[in-house]
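Hypothesis: this fold can be encoded by more than one sequence.
Test: take the structure tokens below, design a sequence, compare later.
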């Protein structure tokens, strides 16, 4: 039986380089890193901060006050993605699902909730902040905002969280549990995270390089994508940005560098023969990620790397979804994405017939 291909028909981006696809494409094409010294409220060091973020006209002001930053970013990215797909989410009803991924979801609000509690006691804890303390706060806000009534799941799984959420979304589309899936990756920087990264010496003192073992560049933002079957997209006359040609995961047999390296190599092998126009990798200056991809680069010198988006936009910046965004920015017949993770499944996937 031939399966109906799953395609991407919409994309929305909130990145340190600015909001929207054009801002991301300009940053990528020019090789222009979008990082700065962190604002004093976040601590010290370099980071990819969404200083140009502007939700005006998209999120109602009274609602904006109640949202944490990852939820704000996700809302604007989702708004862009639906517009890009020419899709009215409220008309989809129970046929629209949401799959989200995050590393830091709920953590910023958790710190904001607990700090006054420790300083002042129970009366210092704000009930306005508490609803954002869970990782699925962003997907809940999006469901209310856009009338999403279908299945919903939020995955918190380190560097590949959103790509694993993509796999969940495809599992809803295949049997018809949903006609359309909104895929979202969102993360935000907050003071405790910056302190932790400094404490474990994973905060790069300067712009990192793959294989440098100096640490990574922390970042924030959100990326949103509209997924549907090719037949559904063609029936409504949608522009198709790219087709998901292959997706593979492999969990390491044990938690070690060699096991992670073998697992990523196995995931790539499971995709079958590859001749990518571009290779979007997750290497970042963090040894636990770079050690898995450097052997792949050595074994496949013919795979053209288009650069490292994490060095341009910052780590976390969507928990893997920044890799998918980078793969969709320029036309290609086949794009390989590898997403090594410091723990859990290693992910590899391919897109084909990418258009802009």
């Amino acid at each position: 039986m031939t399966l109906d291909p799953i395609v991407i028909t919409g994309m929305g981006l909130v990145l340190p380089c600015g909001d929207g696809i054009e801002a991301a494409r300009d940053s990528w094409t020019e090789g222009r890193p979008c990082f700065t010294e962190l604002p004093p409220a976040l601590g010290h060091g370099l980071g990819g901060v969404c200083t140009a973020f502007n939700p005006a006209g998209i999120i109602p002001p009274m609602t904006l006050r109640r949202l944490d930053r990852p939820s704000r970013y996700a809302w604007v990215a989702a708004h862009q993605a639906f517009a890009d797909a020419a899709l009215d989410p409220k008309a989809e009803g129970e046929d629209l699902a949401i799959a989200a991924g995050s590393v830091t979801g709920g953590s910023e609000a958790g710190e904001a909730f607990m700090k006054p509690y420790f300083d002042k006691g129970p009366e210092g804890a704000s009930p306005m902040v508490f609803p954002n303390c869970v990782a699925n706060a962003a997907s809940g806000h999006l469901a209310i905002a856009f009338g999403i009534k279908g299945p919903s799941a939020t995955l918190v799984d380190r560097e590949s969280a959103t790509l694993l959420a993509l796999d969940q979304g495809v599992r809803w589309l295949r049997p018809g549990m949903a006609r359309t899936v909104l895929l979202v990756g969102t993360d935000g920087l907050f003071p405790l995270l910056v302190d932790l990264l400094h404490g474990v010496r994973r905060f790069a003192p300067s712009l990192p390089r793959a294989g440098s073992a100096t640490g990574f560049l922390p970042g924030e933002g959100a990326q949103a994508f509209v997924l549907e079957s090719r037949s559904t997209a063609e029936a409504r006359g949608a522009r198709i940005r790219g087709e998901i040609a292959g997706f593979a995961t492999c969990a390491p047999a044990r938690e070690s560098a060699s096991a992670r390296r073998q697992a990523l190599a196995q995931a790539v092998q499971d995709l079958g023969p590859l001749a990518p126009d571009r290779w979007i990798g997750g290497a970042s200056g963090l040894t636990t990620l770079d050690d898995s991809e450097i052997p792949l680069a050595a074994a496949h010198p013919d795979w053209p790397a288009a650069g490292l988006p994490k060095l341009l936009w910052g780590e976390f910046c969507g928990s893997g979804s920044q890799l998918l965004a980078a793969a969709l920015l320029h036309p290609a017949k086949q794009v390989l994405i590898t997403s090594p993770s410091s723990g859990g499944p290693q992910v590899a996937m391919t897109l084909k017939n990418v258009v802009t």
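The domain at 244-354 is CATH 3.40.47.10 (Peroxisomal Thiolase; Chain A, domain 1). The two ends are 30 Å apart (CA to CA).
Hypothesis status: open.
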